Amino acid sequence: MGIQHSQLPGKRRKVDSLPLSHQGSPYKHRITGKERKNKILVKQSPMLVVNDNEVNLSCKYTYNLFSKEFRASLYKGADSAVEVCAVNGNHSHPLQSTNKEFNCTVKVGNETVTFYLQDLYVNQTDIYFCKLEVLYPPPYIDNEKSNGTIIHVKEKHLCPSPRSPESSKPFWALVVVNGVLVFYSLLVTVALSNCWMKNKRNRMLQSDYMNMTPRRPGPTRRHYQPYAPARDFAAYRS
């Protein structure tokens, strides 16, 4: 008994001399493993280039969202200060909310949440982060912050697009119709002008015919009176 009592302090001293991290280590490791298990990993594309003012950002999670109540959101900026859009609820009845400065829609899959961004501007070029929170059933779980996705919005240059054959059909049909109308109008104008000229020529001929005096056919002879000397009536008076 004395030997046992004398050995107990030594064992206690050995236990007390262990580092604090090793004391109660099995329980401590169980907590750490549980905390790591309750973290969701997210995978995003490192960079997306936007040429036509719209882009699809897919967030792939190591968690199945089926039959869970969750909140999936997209944040803008290195400090995630601006919430772009979010979706709440469950897999079958999601409720969406969007920032007024963005045109965003969300599509939810079993392990993927896709954010459809439209009408993006050049000044909205930034880094974007996906976030997922599982609200029910407990415990509360969220994802570890990923490296994010840089969305580079390029300025859109408007260039005239080549006409397709289908789109040019109405144009050529209109050209043909206008050409037929112009040709018909030209024919009508020429016909009316000819009629007017003929009528004018006929009126002039009739006017000349009415102004002419009638003449006898053949040569005409003049009858001259024979010369008779003038009488001097004064001689007879005397």
UniProtKB/TrEMBL annotation:
Its main location: membrane. Residues 54-132 form the Immunoglobulin V-set domain. GO terms for biological process: immune response; positive regulation of T cell activation; regulation of T cell proliferation. It comes from the Eukaryota. It holds the Pfam family V-set_2. Residues 1-28 are annotated as: Disordered. It is a single-pass type I membrane protein. GO terms for cellular component: plasma membrane. SMART domains: IGv. The chain crosses the membrane at residues 171-196. Homodimer; disulfide-linked. Interacts with DUSP14. Binds to CD80/B7-1 and CD86/B7-2/B70. Interacts with GRB2. Interacts with PIK3R1. Interacts with PRKCQ. Receptor that plays a role in T-cell activation, proliferation, survival and the maintenance of immune homeostasis. Functions not only as an amplifier of TCR signals but delivers unique signals that control intracellular biochemical events that alter the gene expression program of T-cells. Stimulation upon engagement of its cognate ligands CD80 or CD86 increases proliferation and expression of various cytokines in particular IL2 production in both CD4(+) and CD8(+) T-cell subsets. This is T-cell-specific surface glycoprotein CD28.
